[in-house]
Structure formats: C-alpha cells, structure tokens
Specification:
Elements: H1 18-25, E1 33-35, H2 46-55, H3 64-78, E2 85-88, H4 90-102, E3 108-113, H5 118-125, E4 129-134, H6 145-149, E5 157-161, H7 173-182, E6 188-192, H8 206-210, E7 214-219, E8 232-235, H9 244-247, H10 255-265, H11 268-288, E9 292-293, E10 300-304, H12 308-317, E11 320-324, E12 333-337, H13 341-359
Parallel strand pairs: 1-11, 3-4, 3-5, 5-6, 6-7
Antiparallel strand pairs: 2-8, 7-8, 9-10, 10-12, 11-12
Helix pairs in contact: 2-10, 3-10, 4-5, 11-13, 12-13
Protein name: Histidinol-phosphate aminotransferase
Pathway: Amino-acid biosynthesis; L-histidine biosynthesis; L-histidine from 5-phospho-alpha-D-ribose 1-diphosphate: step 7/9
Enzyme class: transferase
Length: about 350
C-alpha cells in the first residue's frame, strides 16, 4: 500500500518557533525574539482571548451558529451577501475551497515566484498543474499587469498577492482590472490580501461588484493576531458564491475560531495599534539596518544581506529569529517581521553586528 505519486509536491516550511529554537540552542525562550513568521507583535485581541475562554465549555457543539454569525459580520463589513463569504481553516483552507470549486484535473494555475508556497501546493493537492510568473529583483519586484500577462497562457486560476510576501510589493486596482480583462473569461483572478490591513492602498473589493472573475483572500492571522486558531476567508462574486456549499468541508472554521474572529472584529483599537507599530517598525528597519531593503507594505521588511543562511543562523544564536528567504528562491535575503519597538530595536542591533561579522 502506497500513497499516490507525490513526487511533484513540496513540503511547506513554516518558520521555527521560539521554544523549538531555544531547546536546540540551549537558550532561555524568554530571552528570545521571533521576527520570522509575520505574526502580530501584540498577540490576539484581549476580546478574542476572552471569547475563546468563554467558548471553551461549548466545544461539544458544532459551530453552526458561530459560523453563520461570522459570515454575516464579514458580509456586512465588505458589503456583500453572506453566501459570498467563504470561511476556511486559515487562508489556506479558503484557497483549498477555491481550488475545489474551480480546478478540473490537469488544469493549470499561475503563481508568483517568489511567493507563498501554498498556492502551488493547493493546486497540486487538487490535481492541478502549476506555472509561474517571475517577480524580478532587478525591477524591485514590481507587480504590474505586464508582470503577470507576459507569462499567462490560459491558466484557470491566477494568484496575485498584494501586499506581496516576502517583498512588500503591491498591485494597483487598475493593474488587477487589466489582468482580469485580458485573461480568459473562465480564468479566476485571486487577490491575496492577507496583509491588507498593513497598507494604505485600497482593497481590490470594488472589482467584485464589476466582475465575476475576481476573488479576494483575507485572514485573521496577521493584523488580528489569530494565527494559532487558523481562520481565514475568501470573498467571491455573487454569481457563483453558492458553490461553497458543495465544496466546503463540514464546519471548516471551528467554534473557537469563529468566536475569536467575531470578537476580534469588534476590537478596532487592537488592529490600529498593530498597524501603527508595524508602520513605525518598517521605517525603523529600513532606516537603521545595515543592508539594502525594499520599500513596500506588510508587517515585514525584505533585506539583502549576502549569505542569508549564515546571517539568520548567527542572529538566531544571539536570540533573534528572522526568516532566511532561501525557500523563496532568495538565498541572499532575509525577511524581518515588524515587532514591538523594543523587539525591533534589539533585532536591528543584533542583525547589524551579525552582518558585519558575516561580511568580514
């Protein structure tokens, strides 16, 4: 007995946790700073924590009401119908729902390189094929309509990330509109706005009122600080929103996740504090880090440091965990998540010392 041929599938390499690294290096986890996974530096909203605690005694019940309540709250926020909100187990779960709804076996998707590995992984799980469009470092990873359309060849789904991870680059609404207009009418353009709260660039939401071939992806993992409960969602055109009921797993968002999400939506102050601090940290890192960085949005900064693996390893031994971007195809770059003011200053100080030694 063997599984199906998985030779074309890759393994998702998540950022390592503080406890894991501390055990390996014999360090005190309380003395370490993790700025590797683009998590919220303030954690979840206190209201979400309270909601999780209050919901614990109801874990014997399926999340029928909470799922419906959260979909309704998000529909109101985005001015769509509840059917247009596809809740998932993280943004990854929403991507899986879109792949199930759209892909026939053997159909192609078009993904960015570098980019979020799960776009391709989800497509392959659903027996799809994967093509790539390149974001060029020489062009500062610019995301334009031509960037995508140059490599487009009739794929069923095109994935756009704005702000883009790990570069911070963004698409304009007009660029997304052009891509949707110039691709086949049966091509779905998915705009991943996981970091949408961390930019002043408007959401591409208006396109959903114009077209039936653009969908948005959003998450509670970043600005809302709920990465651990796994909660994300897609917002899709009304014309085919009812497909969710036929492709969704039973209750793909848990009771805890839905209750936490509902509470987090009510805590604007927590999100505003998170965004404000991330904005400060982005500017601080770009201004103080002894390395070339790229301008962009998101709660992270991409920096070119030469030997990224060596720099990340040395910083880790000094108690600061950052992301070696070799897995993104950028072995010369690290990604530094925006932390609190204290953690960001410490990380930059450690990295500057490490970079000087590694480059010597």
């Amino acid at each position: 007995m063997e599984p199906r041929d998985l030779s074309a599938h890759t393994v998702y390499r998540a950022g390592r946790g503080i406890e894991e690294v501390a055990r390996e290096l014999g360090l005190d986890p309380d003395d370490m700073v993790k700025l590797a996974s683009n998590e919220n530096m303030y954690g979840p909203s206190p209201k979400a924590v309270e909601a999780i605690r209050d919901s614990a005694a109801r874990m014997h019940s399926y999340p029928k009401a909470s799922h419906a309540d959260l979909a309704e709250a998000l529909a109101e926020r985005w001015d769509v119908t509840t059917e247009q909100v596809w809740l998932g187990n993280g943004g990854d779960g929403a991507l899986d729902c879109l792949a199930r709804a759209m892909l026939d076996p053997g159909q192609d998707v078009l993904v960015p390189s570098p980019g979020f590995a799960y776009y391709a992984m989800s497509a392959r799980y659903h027996h799809g094929e994967v093509s790539e469009y390149a974001l060029s470092k020489a062009d500062d990873f610019a995301q334009t309509a031509d960037t995508v359309l140059t490599d487009y060849d009739g794929e069923r789904i095109v994935y756009l990330t704005s702000p883009h991870n790990p570069t911070g680059a963004e698409f304009t609404t007009e660029a997304v509109r052009t891509i949707a207009e110039e691709t086949d009418e049966q091509t779905l353009v998915v705009v991943d706005e996981a970091y949408g709260e961390f930019t002043e660039t408007p959401s591409k939401r208006p396109l959903l009122s114009e077209r039936d071939d653009v969908a948005l992806l959003r998450t509670f993992s970043k600005a809302y600080g709920l990465a651990g409960v796994r909660l994300g969602y897609a917002v899709v055109p009304e014309e085919w929103a009812d497909a969710y009921a036929r492709v969704n797993t039973p209750f793909s968002a848990s009771e805890l996740a839905c209750r936490a999400g509902l509470a987090a939506l009510e805590d604007d102050e927590h999100v505003e504090q998170s965004v404000e601090t991330a904005t400060w940290a982005r500017e601080y890192i770009r201004g103080e880090l002894a390395a070339h960085t790229w301008d962009g949005a998101g709660n992270f900064v991409l920096a070119e440091v030469g030997d990224a693996s060596a720099v990340a390893d040395a910083a880790q031994e000094a108690g600061v965990i950052v992301r070696d971007c070799s897995s993104f195809g950028l072995p010369e770059c690290i990604r530094v998540t925006c932390g609190t003011r204290e953690d960001t200053r410490r990380a930059v100080s450690v990295l500057n010392e490490v970079i000087e030694v590694v480059e010597a």
